[in-house]
Amino acid sequence: MAFESLSDKLQNVFSGLKGKGVLTEQDIDAALREVKLALLEADVNFKVVKEFIAQVREKCLGEEVMKSLTPSQQVIKIVNDELVDLMGGAGTKLTYSPSGFTTIMMAGLQGTGKTTTCGKLAAWLKQNGKKPMLAACDVYRPAAIDQLEVVAKAVKTPVYLDRSEKDPVRIASAAREEAEKKGCNVLIIDTAGRLQIDDALMEELSRMRKAVKPHQVLLVVDALTGQDAVNAARGFNERLGIDGIVMTKMDGDSRGGAALSAKKVTGKPILFMGTGEKYDALEPFHPDRMASRILGMGDMLSLIESAQQAYDEEQASRMEERLRKNQFTLDDFLDQMGQVRKMGGLGKVIGMLPGLRNAGVNQDMIDSGEAEFRQMEVIIHSMTKAERNDPSLLNASRRKRIAAGSGTSVQQVNSLIRKYNDAKKMIKQFTKPGALKRNSMFRGLGL
After folding, report:
1. Which of 52, 55, 61 is nearest to 27 (CA)?
2. Pick from 233, 222, 205, 237: which is nearest to 111 by CA?
3. Taking the domains of the chain in order of start, what are their residue ranges?
């Protein structure tokens, strides 16, 4: 989970301040020493940490904190505001050309997930009303063109390929003409990468930039490489010029140092973050929401947006009608678990809910919950259609058969049925007209 380690340490620091009615300069210095160590352990750039701590200390020693009735809350607010500023302020959105046709050039080193990110960006653009086309301009890496073709098919997006042409600049120019001819309004160019920044790579990218005049140049970096990702971003920006950063593999980076350093070091904002392997696992980067998550205050806006994407109006209306008729089946129960998975899984949902990590919800508990989800799915899939539609059929012999078929115990099957019955009772509260749409998924998961 992104920033998990840093988040836990910062929350521990601030929990030690909450019991104090008055904060002395010594209290603040002691807390900031711990914050400094937490940031350095999270692989945040040393100069960035030094400047961040100095700014926070200056504001914490002001009258607003020292004379406040709730000094610890004022300190947390200052740290939150400084984190937001560190990661880019209010956030920067992807911009489009006023001409009506936007070209986005994707750059990056090999192994950062650039080609997959092109597909994710195409899927995100489609979801936001655009008509993208992909262009395969990596003529060096073996099977790079084939990979982009597979990606394009997966996200149902047209792709321009020319296996005979060896000049990526010509391919990019031809792709733009083809995209406009087909009525697309965004062209995403997948460029070649290297194991490291070199003159040949920069020369090629510079020629392509001059030829196709992209409205945006986005650099794809791997969050797991920490400060190497930040250094790569600085190098690309100095030699090519970039407009924004896409940080991949954020779901696997529990430290978060690259995300906290990138804007300060390069001057360029993080526009998107990759949060999983699936093509819908690309999210706009919101510094204010991310700071809130780091400090354990949740991210309800992102949670609501994820819920809206996972649960469409037609599906909600259909479920509402079934509930009104008391037709909530085990298949419906299974569908509710699927909605949580569409939102990124239990860990991601919990990370966006305020206070749960402070309440002792840790990664082991999240992993256990995910494992229980999978176990319940296997049990339900081991039932016949008639049993899923009418759980009252599940007598002792049937439950024994289902346990054997799913590799579980009868007690685990019984536990699932109890959770289903509890969910059925609970979800009746939301069967008034429009209630299910307002109180979407995971109401009936028994969690």
Report:
1. 61
2. 222
3. 4-86, 102-301, 311-438
- pLDDT one-digit tens code per residue, 254-290: 677 888 999 999 999 999 999 888 898 899 998 988 8
pLDDT, residue 112, reads 92
Contact 102, 216 (CB under 8 A): yes
State the pTM of this model.
Answer: 0.71
The fold adopted by the segment(s) 311-438 is 434 Repressor (Amino-terminal Domain) (1.10.260)
> What is the rounded average pLDDT of the residues 133-162?
94
Residues contacting residue 8 through CB under 8 Å, at least 6 positions apart: 357
CATH class of 102-301: alpha beta
**Strand blocks (E) in 17-161:** 102-107, 132-137, 159-160
The two structure tokens encoding residue 134: 């992909």
Element (H, E) at 190: strand 186-191
Tokens representing 340?
């949580």
SS3 label, residue 327: coil
* Phi, psi angles (nearest 5°) of residue 30: -65, -45
User: Out of 84-98, 214-228, 335-349, which region has the weakest mean confidence (pLDDT)?
Assistant: 335-349
**C-alpha to C-alpha distance for 247 and 113, rounded to whole angstroms:** 10
Alpha carbon distance 237, 262 (integer Å): 11
Dihedral over Cα of 155, 156, 159, 163: its sign: positive
* Bridge partners, 186 (sequence order): 102, 132
| pLDDT score at 315 | 61
Closest listed residue to residue 220, CA positions, set 102, 86, 121: 121
CATH of domain 4-86: 1.20.120.140
pLDDT at residue 447 in the model: 40
Q: Are 312 and 25 in contact (CB under 8 A)?
A: no
Interhelix angle for 287-294 vs 4-15, to 10°? 60
CA dihedral 157, 158, 162, 167 (to 10 degrees): -70
